[in-house]
Amino acid sequence: MTRVSATEFKNNIGTFSDAAMQEPVIITSHQRDRLVLMSAEEYRRLTDSSAATLTDERKRQIRERANYHRDTIIELAQR
Prior knowledge:
By secondary structure, the chain is an alpha+beta fold.
């Protein structure tokens, strides 16, 4: 997981935007987590509400994505 200050992000936005296509990038301000940059595809996956009920396939996808981001989720929850 990538963690970067807001100033460093501003000065290297292209680099960190590219990195966010692979994994979330946490942007800090005054040494505190403020924002998380992620790909639009990942955002859509996390916020997809098109299905009224969760199918078995959707449940599998959610488990898969949660496992993929497990370390990030745990670290953010501990803050």
